[in-house]
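User: Hello! My lab partner asked me to get a predicted holo structure for this protein. The small molecule is calcium ion, SMILES included with the sequence. Please write out the structure tokens.
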Amino acid sequence: MKTLTFLLVFLCELVRSVSPVMGADFVSTTTSSLVQHFFGNKVCRTNQQPILLVTDTTRDGEIDDSISLLMYRELEMLGCIKVIGVVSIFGNGKSSTAEVHENLFVRLNELGLTSWQPLILRGPDHKAFKEMTAFDTILMERITSVVNQYPSVVIAELGPMTVSARLLKHGLVDPSRIERILGVGGRSKGERFSTGKGLGSLFSFRDMNIAEDTGAAMYLVPYYAEKLWMVTYQTGLGSREVSPDAVSAYTPSLAGHAYQRAKVLGSIGYTNIPSWDTWTTSYFLQNGSEELGCKKTKAAMRYLAGFKDPMQLHLNTEKGHTLTACHQVKQ
Ligand SMILES: [Ca+2]
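Assistant: Hello! Below are the structure tokens for the protein in complex with calcium ion.
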């Protein structure tokens, strides 16, 4: 029965992946204010670097993943990277992998990223500390077979770092094949993710990508810290926030989502839309890391009572494992 279910799921995906798509094709507009905002006048540091994107894309709520997908496509058109897979993962707003997977098919179409639709892979359903189910095993094997086609892959984790953790923890790929894991998360000790204005502390952001799969971070930090390159909360604030006007001007199909998101964020004290995931693109640009203030720093997973998410990734610790974290505030 289980085998039958797997077969049906994969047949459905196969049919969808070869179905004609409706959206207009992506058109690069590297001079737009949105691209300038993230790239400035920087040039590629890498050349056709194979990259696996792992995303918890939603079609309402958080908009960062959608903006990230567009900017990664720009990077690809500039020749910095070559996207080898776009993987769905649970995360944003407690979405399941199945929900995100559905979102991803629709959203890539809406964004005109139709050339990536054949690259969509379904991520695992369960957090990294859980045993692999038979279904997750099949899903991870498909992701593994894509990664193993390339000698050196960068994984951009735009959600929980479950896929990287599972690839390494279960010995699915040789660690030397994964050059870097770009992640989003981590905090200074005691840092709360709020503006401090309005209802800020009540409705502050969570360090969501860490919190949604603490098991992934608890595995990667001690064993593969040197591969981790983390965009932190501070990285995406101040002048690094993105305006809904810039998003709408760049992609009219995102206008509704962008203004709705800005309205919600305005109610908790933000002027614009903090964007964290998208700053992972800086890794591929000359002086990109320097501009974000990325530095090697000691980090550790710690339990801190009194927080909604007590298991946290703390940066700048006295003891711990050395990873790279980007926390320069650009005002
Ligand atoms: Ca995300």
